[in-house]
């Protein structure tokens, strides 16, 4: 009596294995794509940017690789750079953007502004600084000091006012006034969240920021602006 041989194995085994391999390699690709962090940093010391990249476990702060840094590159020309103050010590770097998450950080506002061009694609702030050297000598150290303290929030309004300014006599006072107005709003928000450290850091910075102008009236008005902000934020 003839017996039929049973077929050995599972006919679905190979498709299941292929599916599992596909899921495995797909998961690895997703892991590597989300683990890689790439972005740009900005240094207010010298108005340079550089790229960075590293890998970490997704959803955690566990870093898998050392940070790879690209070369530092100036994002504006010497007509701006020559007005910056020399800052001792190693340059500080602030994250500007993170490509992998389509994220921008406060310093990106200054990075984008410094890369602004004219209609003929020339460097806008380089041309402005060349045409207004006395204003540029006040503007860029002021902006630099704001950026060093990571107080980027007044800078867009400051640059807008600078582009429209023609009178160097009250220019520095105008920069302080814009900063105080922006700072008042921001500090009141910080008070609501109880962030007294940020408020004190900003007030200290404003008190210590040197006044370039030699005009007594300008010095007195700037002192008045500083006092106004402190009285607004300090309870009686």
List keywords for this structure.
six-stranded antiparallel β-sheet, 236 residues, 6 strands
Structural notes for this entry:
By secondary structure, this protein is an alpha+beta fold. Helices cover 52% and strands 11% of the residues. It is built from 9 helices and 6 strands, in the order H-E-E-E-E-H-E-E-H-H-H-H-H-H-H. Strands 1, 2, 3, 4, 5 and 6 form a 6-stranded antiparallel β-sheet that branches. A hairpin with a 4-residue loop joins strand 1 and strand 2. Helix 4 (124-131) crosses helix 5 and helix 6 (155-164) packs antiparallel against helix 7 (171-193). It is elongated, with a radius of gyration of 27 Å. The termini are far apart.
As a percent range, the share of strand residues is 5-15%
User: Could you tell me the radius of gyration in angstroms?
Assistant: 27 Å
Number of strands: 6
What's the order of the H and E elements? Answer: HEEEEHEEHHHHHHH
The description of the largest β-sheet is: 6 strands, antiparallel
Helix content: 40-55%
The dominant shape is: elongated
Instruction: Write down the overall mean pLDDT.
Output: 81
Q: What oligomeric state best describes the polypeptide chains here?
A: single chain
Low-pLDDT runs: none
Number of helices: 9
For the record, give the distance between the C-alpha atoms at the N and C termini, rounded to a whole number.
109 Å
Which structural class is indicated by helix and strand composition? alpha+beta
